[in-house]
Protein backbone atom coordinates (compact mmCIF):
# COMPACT_ATOMS: atom_id res chain seq x y z
CA UNK A 1 0.00 0.00 0.00
CA UNK A 2 1.35 3.40 -0.96
CA UNK A 3 1.79 6.16 1.62
CA UNK A 4 1.37 9.89 1.13
CA UNK A 5 4.57 11.74 2.05
CA UNK A 6 2.57 14.53 3.67
CA UNK A 7 2.51 12.61 6.97
CA UNK A 8 6.31 12.40 7.25
CA UNK A 9 8.48 14.57 9.47
CA UNK A 10 11.97 14.74 10.95
CA UNK A 11 12.77 15.35 14.62
CA UNK A 12 16.09 15.80 16.40
CA UNK A 13 17.47 15.34 19.94
CA UNK A 14 15.18 18.00 21.30
CA UNK A 15 12.19 15.78 20.48
CA UNK A 16 10.84 18.58 18.34
CA UNK A 17 9.93 18.49 14.68
CA UNK A 18 12.24 20.52 12.44
CA UNK A 19 10.01 23.30 11.12
CA UNK A 20 9.39 23.94 7.43
CA UNK A 21 10.99 20.68 6.28
CA UNK A 22 9.78 19.74 2.81
CA UNK A 23 11.52 16.39 2.40
CA UNK A 24 13.93 13.94 3.96
CA UNK A 25 15.79 10.94 2.60
CA UNK A 26 17.57 7.97 4.10
CA UNK A 27 20.27 5.81 2.52
CA UNK A 28 21.24 2.45 4.01
CA UNK A 29 24.26 0.57 2.69
CA UNK A 30 26.16 -2.63 3.37
CA UNK A 31 29.73 -3.46 2.45
CA UNK A 32 29.85 -6.73 0.56
CA UNK A 33 33.18 -8.52 0.84
CA UNK A 34 34.16 -10.80 -2.00
CA UNK A 35 35.16 -14.34 -1.04
CA UNK A 36 35.44 -15.84 -4.54
CA UNK A 37 38.15 -18.49 -4.76
CA UNK A 38 40.11 -19.82 -7.70
CA UNK A 39 38.00 -22.35 -9.57
CA UNK A 40 34.65 -20.72 -8.63
CA UNK A 41 32.41 -19.90 -11.58
CA UNK A 42 30.31 -17.39 -9.70
CA UNK A 43 31.41 -14.59 -7.39
CA UNK A 44 30.67 -15.10 -3.70
CA UNK A 45 30.28 -12.50 -0.96
CA UNK A 46 29.82 -12.12 2.77
CA UNK A 47 28.20 -9.23 4.58
CA UNK A 48 30.53 -6.57 5.96
CA UNK A 49 29.80 -3.34 7.79
CA UNK A 50 26.55 -1.37 7.52
CA UNK A 51 26.23 2.40 7.39
CA UNK A 52 23.52 4.98 6.97
CA UNK A 53 23.18 8.61 5.95
CA UNK A 54 20.21 10.93 5.89
CA UNK A 55 19.39 14.37 4.56
CA UNK A 56 16.59 16.90 4.77
CA UNK A 57 15.66 20.18 3.15
CA UNK A 58 13.07 22.88 3.48
CA UNK A 59 12.38 26.56 3.94
CA UNK A 60 14.71 28.51 6.22
CA UNK A 61 13.06 29.21 9.58
CA UNK A 62 15.98 29.45 12.00
CA UNK A 63 14.65 32.52 13.84
CA UNK A 64 11.32 30.86 14.62
CA UNK A 65 12.54 27.26 15.10
CA UNK A 66 15.01 27.33 18.02
CA UNK A 67 14.51 23.64 18.84
CA UNK A 68 14.77 22.48 15.22
CA UNK A 69 16.74 24.38 12.60
CA UNK A 70 18.68 26.46 15.13
CA UNK A 71 19.47 23.29 17.10
CA UNK A 72 20.79 21.75 13.87
CA UNK A 73 23.00 24.78 13.29
CA UNK A 74 24.25 24.74 16.90
CA UNK A 75 25.03 20.99 16.72
CA UNK A 76 26.88 21.47 13.43
CA UNK A 77 28.95 24.39 14.74
CA UNK A 78 29.89 22.54 17.94
CA UNK A 79 30.36 19.10 16.33
CA UNK A 80 27.76 17.62 18.66
CA UNK A 81 26.07 14.29 17.97
CA UNK A 82 22.28 14.41 17.57
CA UNK A 83 19.55 11.80 17.65
CA UNK A 84 17.26 11.97 14.64
CA UNK A 85 13.86 10.47 14.03
CA UNK A 86 12.72 10.11 10.43
CA UNK A 87 8.95 9.59 10.42
CA UNK A 88 7.47 7.82 7.39
CA UNK A 89 3.98 8.52 8.72
CA UNK A 90 2.51 9.55 12.07
CA UNK A 91 3.82 6.55 14.02
CA UNK A 92 6.46 4.59 12.04
CA UNK A 93 9.98 5.96 12.06
CA UNK A 94 13.72 5.32 11.81
CA UNK A 95 15.94 6.57 14.62
CA UNK A 96 19.65 6.77 15.29
CA UNK A 97 22.52 8.96 16.40
CA UNK A 98 24.32 11.04 13.79
CA UNK A 99 26.67 13.91 13.16
CA UNK A 100 25.66 16.77 10.91
CA UNK A 101 28.14 16.46 8.06
CA UNK A 102 26.90 19.47 6.12
CA UNK A 103 24.48 22.35 6.56
CA UNK A 104 23.63 24.64 3.65
CA UNK A 105 21.63 27.84 3.43
CA UNK A 106 20.58 29.15 0.03
CA UNK A 107 19.33 32.72 -0.37
CA UNK A 108 18.24 33.31 -4.01
CA UNK A 109 16.93 36.70 -5.08
CA UNK A 110 13.92 35.14 -6.84
CA UNK A 111 12.85 32.45 -4.38
CA UNK A 112 12.48 31.69 -0.67
CA UNK A 113 15.53 31.15 1.53
CA UNK A 114 16.07 27.42 1.98
CA UNK A 115 18.18 25.08 4.07
CA UNK A 116 19.53 21.57 3.57
CA UNK A 117 21.29 19.29 5.98
CA UNK A 118 23.15 16.00 5.70
CA UNK A 119 23.64 13.52 8.54
CA UNK A 120 26.25 10.77 8.87
CA UNK A 121 24.95 7.93 11.00
CA UNK A 122 27.02 7.03 14.06
CA UNK A 123 26.18 3.44 14.93
CA UNK A 124 22.92 1.53 14.74
CA UNK A 125 19.79 2.71 12.96
CA UNK A 126 16.55 1.27 14.29
CA UNK A 127 13.03 1.10 12.89
CA UNK A 128 10.20 1.76 15.34
CA UNK A 129 6.87 0.31 14.18
CA UNK A 130 3.92 2.32 15.45
CA UNK A 131 0.29 1.49 15.89
CA UNK A 132 -1.13 3.43 13.00
CA UNK A 133 -3.23 6.55 13.42
CA UNK A 134 -3.76 9.47 11.01
CA UNK A 135 -1.43 8.87 8.12
CA UNK A 136 -0.15 5.70 9.77
CA UNK A 137 -0.68 2.10 8.86
CA UNK A 138 0.50 -1.30 9.92
CA UNK A 139 -0.47 -2.95 6.62
Mean pLDDT: 92
Q: Provide the low-confidence segments as ranges.
A: none
Give the proportion of residues in helices. under 10%
Number of helical elements: 1
Radius of gyration: 18 Å
Please summarize the sheet with the most strands.
6 strands, antiparallel
Number of E-type strands: 6
The sequence of SSEs as H and E is EEEHEEE
The percent range for strand residues is over 45%
Structural class: mainly beta
Global shape:
elongated
In whole angstroms, how far apart are the ends? 7 Å
* Biggest sheet strand line-up: 1-4-5-6-3-2
Structural account:
The chain is mostly beta strands. Helices cover 7% and strands 48% of the residues. The protein is elongated, with a radius of gyration of 18 Å. The model has no long low-confidence stretch (mean pLDDT 92).
What's the layout of helices and strands?
Layout: E1 9-11, E2 21-34, E3 45-59, H1 69-78, E4 82-87, E5 93-106, E6 114-128
Antiparallel strand pairs: 1-4, 2-3, 3-6, 4-5, 5-6
Task: Give a summary of the structure in a few sentences.
This protein has 139 residues and is mostly beta strands.
Keywords:
mainly beta, elongated, about 5% helix, about 140 residues, six-stranded antiparallel β-sheet
Amino acid sequence: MALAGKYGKICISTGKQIASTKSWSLELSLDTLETTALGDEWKKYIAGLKEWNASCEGDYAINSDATGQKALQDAYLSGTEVTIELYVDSSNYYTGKAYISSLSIEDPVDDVVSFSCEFTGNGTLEFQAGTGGPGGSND
